[in-house]
């Protein structure tokens, strides 16, 4: 095999091993929330469901967003690991194209590539549907999806509607692939 093929096989194998969801072809382009008001989007969001993401294994997963004076967003993600310790990571998100405020780009480590953070839909005060996708060589892509909420739980009605929105969006995320985040016994996290 040439180096390129080795790289592709390696990347696909890694993606599969990490339990990520990978597909052939380039990233889909789902429509996003129109005129997202980033200020209203700030604050704490609880993770309700997600497409498997190897870097988030704990329970009580939540994200806290705050607007910085330079217009970028401070991102603070936390979770409780199985041994009870709190794991957190801080990053920065920014809107790259002001005409597309619902498409943010998040980076957690300086020098590492950033990941897209697309708000497919939100009402700011109860739920948010988030999608992310990275493509490799235009040959395959790995995607992520999150159902976030302002409260640690959402009603079955709302979740059902969000599943439908995900499935019918261009991202075509199958609700059966989403895993539910445990948001019980989370009092330890101080917002
Ligand atoms: C965004 O929301 C903030 C806070 O509610 C408000 O002050 C601001 O006018 C909104 N911006 C736009 C462009 O609607």
Automatic annotation (TrEMBL):
GO terms for molecular function: lipid binding. GO terms for cellular component: cytoplasm; extracellular region. The keyword Signal applies. The keyword Glycoprotein applies. SUPFAM superfamilies: Lipocalins (SSF50814). Residues 1-19 form the signal peptide. It comes from Cynoglossus semilaevis. Keywords: Disulfide bond, Glycoprotein, Lipid-binding, Pyrrolidone carboxylic acid, Secreted, Signal, Transport. This is Apolipoprotein D. PROSITE patterns: LIPOCALIN. Belongs to the calycin superfamily. Lipocalin family. Residues 36-182 form the Lipocalin/cytosolic fatty-acid binding domain. It is found in: Secreted. One of its GO terms (biological process) is lipid metabolic process. It comes from the Eukaryota. Gene3D superfamilies: 2.40.128.20. Pfam families: Lipocalin_2.
């Amino acid at each position: 095999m040439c180096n390129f093929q080795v790289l592709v096989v390696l990347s696909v194998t890694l993606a599969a091993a990490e339990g990520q969801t990978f597909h052939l072809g380039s990233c889909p382009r789902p429509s996003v929330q129109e005129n997202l008001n980033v200020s209203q989007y700030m604050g704490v969001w609880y993770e309700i469901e997600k497409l498997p993401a190897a870097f988030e294994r704990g329970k009580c997963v939540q994200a806290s967003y705050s607007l910085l004076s330079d217009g970028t967003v401070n991102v603070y993600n936390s979770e409780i690991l199985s041994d009870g310790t709190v794991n957190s990571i801080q990053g920065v998100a920014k809107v790259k194209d002001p005409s597309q405020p619902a498409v943010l780009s998040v980076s957690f480590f300086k020098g590492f590539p950033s990941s897209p953070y697309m708000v497919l839909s939100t009402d700011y005060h109860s739920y948010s549907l988030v999608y992310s996708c990275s493509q490799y060589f235009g040959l395959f892509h790995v995607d992520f999806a999150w159902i976030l909420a302002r409260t640690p739980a959402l009603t079955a009605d709302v979740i059902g509607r969000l599943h439908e929105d995900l499935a019918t969006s261009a991202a075509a995320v199958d609700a059966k692939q989403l895993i539910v985040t445990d948001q019980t016994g989370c009092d330890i996290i101080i917002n």
